[in-house]
Write a structure and sequence with these properties.
The complex is a heterodimer of chains A (109) and B (122). Chain A has no helices and 9 strands. Chain A is mainly beta and 109 residues long. Chain B is globular. Classes of the chains: A mainly beta (109), B mainly beta (122). At the A-B interface, strand 3, strand 7 and strand 8 of A face strand 5 and strand 10 of B.
Chain lengths: 109, 122
């Protein structure tokens, strides 16, 4: 089965840039989606298909995907960005299953 | 504005069947191009996909849960449901229902319910 690997935690100072990675075998050939989840809340889609933003998501959120690593980049980080972030793919090569990464806790220092 | 609301028993005994329903409002559950999913999150842990269903009734399940899971859809009631049999403590989690299909061609979840905690305990 396909596995997505995320670092457990990332820390960044306010105003700086946070980069959260999602590793997977040849993940660059798949579309990667990213979610933000704050404590006690449901996840929110922040990036879809590698680099597109749903309506209402700030331009500070961007994504890229190449080779074996996809990256969510949050520019000009704010205190309100502190949350867990999950990557996700739809693995159509295997039972059309959905796979989530283990999640990354973003701490704003 | 689409809204999804989970409902069902919050406490299930080991070996019994967990049953949840997701009521959909503000949009049609029968529209083509959308899929309807169940996703769970054990306390303090990450997200785990359970399965999804299309309005046609086609289903796809997580292989690790497939033998115990049934997802069904009722267009007349604008709801879809989850049954998970032979539960154990490991099935204790917040269960979310979610919709995919608004963004791009891939499965990604654009709308979520608030989640409901299901505890497996005797």
């Amino acid at each position: 089965s396909y596995v997505l690997t995320q670092p457990p935690s990332v820390s960044v100072a306010p105003g700086q840039t946070a980069r959260i990675t999602c590793g997977g075998n040849n993940i660059g050939s798949k579309s990667v989606h990213w979610y933000q989840q704050k404590p006690g809340q449901a996840p929110v889609l922040v990036v879809y298909e590698d680099s597109d933003r749903p309506s209402g998501i700030p331009e500070r959120f961007s994504g890229s995907n190449s080779g074996n690593t996809a990256t969510l980049t949050i520019s000009r980080v704010e205190a309100g960005d502190e949350a867990d972030y999950y990557c996700q793919v739809w693995d159509t090569s295997s039972d059309h299953r959905v796979v989530f990464g283990g999640g990354t806790k973003l701490t704003v220092l | 504005q689409l809204q999804l609301q989970e409902s069902g028993s919050g406490l299930v005994k080991p070996s019994q069947t967990l049953s949840l329903t997701c009521a959909v409002s503000g949009g049609s559950i029968s529209s083509s191009g959308y899929s309807w999913s169940w996703i769970r999150q054990p306390p303090g842990k990450g997200l785990e996909w359970i399965g999804y269903i299309y309005h046609s009734g086609s289903t796809y399940y997580n292989p690790s849960l497939k033998s115990r899971v049934t997802i069904s859809i009722d267009g007349s009631k604008s709801q879809f449901s989850l049954k998970l049999s032979s539960v154990t403590a490991a099935d204790t989690a917040v269960y979310y229902c979610a919709r995919a299909g608004s963004y791009g061609l891939e499965i990604n979840f654009d709308s979520w319910g608030q989640g409901t905690l299901v505890t497996v305990c005797s």
